[in-house]
Write a structure and sequence with these properties.
Pathway: Purine metabolism; 7-cyano-7-deazaguanine biosynthesis. The protein is α/β, with parallel strands linked by helices. It has six helices and nine strands.
């Protein structure tokens, strides 16, 4: 394999928007969306990233990120870690001085990710349809710099996630986010459940969707 091929990634899009979730919510952020995902969560809102995309050299990705002139970069998908060269991209972004986050499904080993990256790791609930794909050993690799996210589809999902948080003391490892699946649950219900249980998690909604809805590239 040539060096050029070895340093390429298949991308669906690169765009600048407001980060809508997790600890960096509200910051102008460049999103690098890699193509492909081995999971099929029933609530997925980026199924357009499953296939297609274009091959980009790492240098070209770095140049496009720099063109937008912002400090925060989020590498997402799809499932970005499904492409092995994602690890090299994350390292290059960190070396360039960006604040880098990675949105990953939790179904792939995160141990090789540069420790400067804030790894936002999903824990798939039963309602996702992919609960069996969780790599529980990833939890042992988390630091306070990382983040966990549960997307809650219904009351059963909430109760399942609540017990996972409590039994594994996840809030002692890093920030834990609970997000309502926007087509399946009233956010007020989730907020009330969290408050009733005094659960040590943070609730979030997708800021970008509240502003722009499902507009592509936003």
């Amino acid at each position: 394999m040539s060096t050029a091929v070895a340093e390429r990634l298949r991308l669906t899009e690169i765009f600048c928007s407001l980060q809508g979730e997790a600890r960096d919510a509200g910051w102008p952020t460049v999103f690098v969306r890699l193509t492909g995902c081995p999971l099929r969560c029933q609530y997925c809102d980026t199924a357009y990233a499953f296939h297609g995309g274009d091959w980009w050299e790492l240098d070209a990705i770095l140049a496009e990120v720099a063109r937008h002139g912002v400090r925060h970069v989020c590498v997402t998908g799809g499932e970005p870690l499904a492409q092995k060269r994602c690890i090299a991209l994350l390292q290059r972004l960190c070396e360039a001085g960006y604040e880098v986050s990675l949105e990953t499904s939790g179904a792939i080993d995160i141990s090789e990710v540069d420790p400067r990256v804030s790894r936002v790791v999903d824990i798939k609930t039963p309602g996702s349809g992919e609960v069996q794909r969780n790599r529980w050993d990833n939890l042992d690799r988390l630091t306070a710099h990382d983040q966990l996210k549960f997307v809650i589809c219904d009351r059963a999902d909430y109760e399942w996630a609540r017990e996972v948080v409590r039994e594994r003391a996840l809030h002692e490892k890093c920030v834990v986010w609970f997000s309502p699946s926007h087509t399946q649950i009233d956010p007020r219900e989730l907020a009330d459940w969290i408050l009733a249980d005094r659960l040590p998690v943070r609730m979030q909604m997708q800021l970008h969707k509240l502003i722009w809805g499902d507009e592509p590239g936003r």
